[in-house]
Design goal:
- It is a single chain.
- By secondary structure, this protein is an alpha/beta fold.
- The protein has 2 domains: 6-310 and 390-480, ANL, N-terminal domain (Rossmann fold), CATH 3.40.50; 500-625, GMP Synthetase, Chain A, domain 3.
- The strands form 10 sheets. A 7-stranded mixed beta sheet has the order 5-4-17-16-18-19-20, sandwiched between helices.
- Helix 3 runs antiparallel to helix 4, helix 4 packs across helix 8 (216-222) and helix 9 crosses helix 10 (288-300).
- Bound molecules: coenzyme A and adenosine monophosphate.
- Coenzyme A binds next to strand 9 and helix 12.
- This is Acetate--CoA ligase.
- GO terms for molecular function: acetate-CoA ligase activity.
Length: 629
């Protein structure tokens, strides 16, 4: 039930008395030791939530629903457009599998606080493994299956897992993605020495696996269930690596208590999903969107979640999303705008929609990249449902700005993710940290402390956490996005202020692509920037200066670099653009002017910095951009 003014009341309550607001929200969570305090601000800027509370996250996702008599309700539907199969698991069935897999992990030495790296495709075992870690109070770190061995190795190094859970492979349209070799290579490259590698042998992907790897199904069949282990609310639940400005990924740390409270609150207030209703988040468990709204959020709410292995188009056609909505009576679909653009490209009038009964759909939520007004208008027209843009990041774990449909639906403005979610005090500031007038672009920041459910730090790296997010503007968290707030308090996100790019909703660092490009023997220096792409939003584009006397054609160089990025980072980088240029624009101190290059590539107004070494380089570069478009 929604009422007018509910949003403003909730926003003000969370801002003026966060303790009361979040302690009240915490009542919706099952605690072994209920918290008596919400915010611990004893060591700013390292804020903690619910410092004296204890709970188990898996209990909140599964056991509590079974205990309250909902064991027969469907918790998880696996729908694979790749294999044409479907399976569903009730809460009782999922609990049984999770408890037994927790038993497997425990037998292999995984205890509270130990890390488990999960490198799995979109199969139920991914959800089972995540929840089994949570049951033991262990810390999972899921690595997206589209990342190649070196990226996996970097994450293994940092997380130092006690166990790795993987599968024989994943399925992409027209090809099988082998997981065994990347895991072997990554383990060989890495300093990590897990005591077990547990592998799910997919019947559709037979593979030779090392003799000392543990078979997922055999181990599960033989295991005895593990009881849940209560942990401190402030203990870590997971580490999720995300791209930063440098090539080294950042391990975003999420706690148990704040996460359970925030996601539980968000399910009703933002998505308006309750027990028994179906939420389908068409993302991947390797991203934060998958963590929060394929796995944890819907299960905390006692809802039914859909795990979809497939694409919006080509599996088999552009009606795939409408088919899943109809087959599973989906109430809320959450996806990335790129998926909508992909559907629109193939089926401009969404003619295939007419073949399916999608009447159960209440709203479409999108995030991951900006929802351009054109795609918004198209989706609103063909679906005839609210299309809700909402803005968030791996770091925040749940939406910073949204249209809170369960609390009080607000008028939608094309191009805006609406208003700050209660708990997030969003501001737009200029370079010196001063507030800018309404409608003026600036850096988007959030006043500290952030609400529950947001990152508590970076794994093993307090210094980087402070430097990356907390030191630019005193008292504020730096989102890395620029944008503006209009007279009505609506936010518009315009883009990143750093070298992070968003390719088909996948967050990548241009720095890590540059690091691969720079290793080519013919490359003297290079810059990789994100340029506009009609379907994927952005794509990486490399500008390369050759070494004097380098004997290579541009075509050969392109072929080499595409193969290298695919091998080192993964196919998901969608790296295809390479342009040889005579020089890169630099400051007199030798810093490459990537921001200026981005402005040129986007056709935006170019602000030539006074520190530029040689402005004529920009003219030559402008030629290169003209040639590309
Ligand atoms: N494992 C292995 N490879 C993967 C992969 C995975 N999990 N995910 C993607 N890839 C591969 C693809 O097969 C493709 O390989 P190719 O170059 O050999 O064709 C490459 O990585 C690029 O993938 P992608 O950018 O996803 O392009 P696509 O053409 O396969 O699909 C979309 C385009 C728009 C349909 C798809 O990106 C999509 O559905 N995006 C939604 C993204 C999303 O949910 N983001 C999460 C935030 S909400
Ligand atoms: P990720 O951490 O992968 O979720 O990526 C977070 C980044 O994606 C944000 O910092 C934004 O740059 C971008 N992003 C996510 N959602 C939106 C949105 N709704 N509108 C604009 N940009 C978005």
């Amino acid at each position: 039930m929604t009422d007018s003014g509910a949003y403003r009341r909730a926003y003000d309550a969370a801002a003026t008395d966060p303790d009361a607001f979040w302690l009240d929200a915490a009542r919706a969570v099952d605690w072994t030791v209920p918290p008596t305090r919400a915010l611990d601000s004893s060591r700013p800027p390292f804020y903690r939530w619910f410092p004296d509370g204890e709970l188990n996250t898996c209990v909140n996702a599964l056991d509590r629903h079974v205990a309250s008599g909902a064991g027969d309700r469907v918790a998880l539907i696996h729908d694979s457009a790749m294999t044409g199969t479907r399976a569903s698991y009730t809460y009782a069935e999922l609990l049984d599998l999770v408890a037994r897999f927790a038993g497997v992990l425990r037998e292999h030495g995984v205890g509270t606080g130990d890390r488990v790296v999960i490198y799995l495709p979109m199969i139920p075992e991914a959800v089972i493994a995540m929840l089994a870690c949570a049951r033991l109070g262990a810390v999972h770190s899921v690595v997206f299956g589209g990342f190649a061995a070196k990226e996996l190795a970097a994450r293994l190094d940092d997380a130092a897992p006690v166990a790795v859970v993987t599968a024989t492979g994943g399925l992409e349209p027209g090809r099988t993605v082998d997981y065994v070799e990347p895991v072997r290579t990554a383990l060989a490259l890495s300093t990590a020495s897990p005591s077990a590698v547990i592998v799910k042998r997919r019947t559709e992907i037979p593979a030779e696996v090392p003799a000392d790897w543990v078979d997922f199904d055999d181990a599960l069949a033989a295991a005895s269930p593990a009881d849940p282990v209560a942990v401190a609310a402030t203990d870590p639940l997971y580490v999720l690596y995300t791209s930063g400005t440098t090539g080294k990924p950042k391990g975003v740390v999420r706690d148990n208590g704040g996460h359970a409270v925030a996601l539980t609150w968000s399910m009703r207030a933002i998505y308006d999903i309750g027990p028994g209703q179906v939420m389908w988040t068409a993302s991947d468990v390797g991203w934060v969107v998958g963590h929060s709204y394929i796995v944890y959020g819907p299960l905390f709410a006692g809802a039914t979640t859909v795990l979809y292995e497939g694409k919006p188009v080509g599996t088999p056609d552009a009606g795939a999303f409408w088919r899943v909505i109809a087959d599973h009576d989906v109430r809320v679909l959450f996806t990335a705008p790129t998926a909508l653009r992909a559907i629109r490209k193939v089926d401009p009038d969404a003619a295939l929609l007419a073949s399916y009964d999608t009447s159960g759909l209440d709203a479409l939520f999108v995030a991951g990249e900006r929802l351009d007004p054109d795609t918004f208008a198209w989706a609103s027209r063909v679906l005839d449902r609210p299309v809700v843009d909402h803005w968030w990041q791996t770091e925040t774990g749940w939406p910073i700005c949204a249209n809170l449909r369960g609390l009080e639906p607000m008028p939608i403005k094309a191009g805006s993710p609406t208003v700050p979610v209660p708990g997030f005090r969003v501001a737009v500031v200029d370079a010196s940290g001063g507030p800018v007038p309404a409608g003026t672009e600036g850096s988007i920041v959030v006043e500290l402390p952030l609400p529950p459910g947001t990152l508590t730090g970076l794994w093993n790296d307090e210094t980087r956490y402070v430097e990356s997010y907390l030191s630019a503007f005193d008292g504020y968290y730096l989102t890395g996005d620029s944008g503006l707030i209009d007279e009505d308090g609506y936010l518009t996100v315009l883009g990143r202020t750093d070298d992070v790019i968003n390719v088909a909703g996948h967050r990548l660092s241009t720095g890590s692509i540059e690091a691969v490009v720079a290793t080519h023997p013919a490359v003297a220096e290079c810059a990789v920037i994100g340029v506009h792409d009609e379907t994927k939003g952005q794509k990486p584009s490399a500008y390369v200066v050759l070494k004097a006397g380098a004997d290579i054609t541009e075509d050969q160089l392109r072929t080499d670099l595409i193969a290298a990025v695919r091998a080192d980072i993964g196919a998901v980088a969608s790296f295809k653009d390479v342009t040889v240029v005579a020089a890169l624009p630099k400051t007199r101190s030798g810093k490459i002017l990537r921001k200026t290059m981005r402005q040129m590539a986007d056709g935006a107004e170019v602000v030539v910095p006074s520190t530029i070494e040689d402005a004529s380089v920009l003219d030559a570069l402008a030629e290169a951009f003209r040639g590309r478009v």
